[in-house]
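Hey team,

Filing this mostly as a record. A colleague (T.K.) asked me to run one chain through the structure pipeline before their review meeting, and I want the input and output archived in the tracker in case anyone asks later how it was produced. No errors, nothing strange. Just documentation.

Input sequence:
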Amino acid sequence: MRSIVVSKFVPWPPNSGDKRRTLAIARALKDVGEVVICGFAADGEDVAGLASQGFEVRAVPLRRGILKTLVGLVHGQSLSGARFWDADLAEAVASATGDPFDTIVVVHPQLQMYLPKGAWSRAVIDMQNVESALAARVAATRRGVARALYAIDSIALRRLERRAGRARLVTAVSEGDKRELVTAIHADNVLVVPNAWDSATPLPPTVDPVVSFVALLSWGPNVAAAVWFATNVWPRVIEAVPEARLHLVGREPSAEVRGLASESVVVTGTVDRLEPWYEASAISVAPLLAGGGSRLKILESLAFGRPVVATAIGVEGLEDLIGDGVVVADDVEGMAREIITLLRDPALAQRIGEAGVEAVDSRHSWRSATEPLLAAVASSTAVGSTP
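Output structure:
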């Protein structure tokens, strides 16, 4: 079987939730055949690293520009997708699909613009979020022009989600996303491929009162979460546990996030390895106020043995982990209270973390997560969907 994966960025190094999920799907497909990955690459190391994993890689540099974005609006038909239009990437995908193939996986609905006309019957659209709902939630938190732009994009994204119903298969990360997508696209071809995590060696417990929020800190919902947490929740934690420290760990922190740095708050910027930061932490937080994102940082934290305090939105799609490594609190007082309790009782934090390790190992492996996708692809290939 020959498969093609089209993603915004080639998934190497796998240093984000988006890339980890894309790489896991590509690896599952590689177990049953040849895989070609098309996407943008920051530098040659990304291409070489991915090729060393046994993939054929057709990558192009991501170029910015107002004219290019305007052209992208015509092709992508959404504000958030416009900046990912590139004629060279379109040519790379066309070249890859010029040879016989069985399946083409398009990561995110915005990249449907790269699908050749005759490829829909062999296409899988991987919805890592319900993008229209995410844009609508973000719009509700903004004002003025930003609010209007996100609202407009939400409408455009809903149209793209409906169009995705033409594909052989649409994949969602959770049952909740599946229900929302089924309603949106009026189709019965939505399959849940949950996010997962490969097993890791749990880190030794710590008694240091350190809390970490690990995320891409340039992404709007993560920025809003960091600001809300540091501004509203953290002062209550410090009042009760004066020696506590907050680590905001992640690439490309926005100016708003960098401005949160203080005597008790460390903003790291890009780090080479996350393990030392998890090892230094007693607990992790996922204080998201708007939906979206892969939630893979929750699985990562639990795999390392660190309990997670999250909002209900922060743990969407991983609700089975509530009580098994994850504690939910949706308001300022509740979240502060749960964090204070765990910082004051390291033994309790360790027990909750150990429950999380067991839950991730037993219920959230990538092999089990991708099995339904492979079965569905193999089934439709067997009945002759490949010309």
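Quick notes for T.K.: The radius of gyration is 21 Å. The domain at 2-196+365-382 is CATH 3.40.50.2000 (Rossmann fold).
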